[in-house]
User: What shape does this take?
Amino acid sequence: YSDTSMSSTCEMVYHFIKSLGDEDVITADMASCLYTGIMTDTGSFRFPSTTATTHEVIAALIKKGANNDQIHQNIYDTNSESRLQLLGVALSNLVVLREYRTAYITISQKELDDHKFQKGDTEGFVNYCLSLEGIIFAVIFIENKADRIIKMSLRSKGDFSVNELARAHYHGGGHTNAAGGKSDESLEETVAQFKALLPSYKEQLT
Assistant: This one.
């Protein structure tokens, strides 16, 4: 089941449940999980993939018991000391390529380990790149030595499709403005290959 016009996998799950006529089985906990997935995948409902239907789904989930205020606090306003320090490291690793209106962040396995990384700690880090004036393409490269991959999150503004780029080069995909991918090369090689790709996308980016 694939529908790239949807805002998120969780919105797809909701529509799937609804198509079966099983909306009544959605509990408050289920609604909270679906709300969280939609909220994070849409960048708090600001990406273009967020539609009127997405907001209708969110309204239905709130009616089912999703506590939107608490979910936002838990995701965005509750930080451990180590996560904030990791964010500091990520921002110190920020590289801006103005000629391509692009910015990226790298985080090595050692940097993750030094800051007691927990799954989800890097959620939203890539969006700091997009907050820079004039930047429309952002990537975060996160080393995962256990899986021997570099995990990538790609974000964009406007019509530049990170979905197409991730599918073409990084075994991934997603939406026009939000996608994921991976590389089997080292962190340094992955970044070098990424930078080598940018000239072929310069016209779209500028």
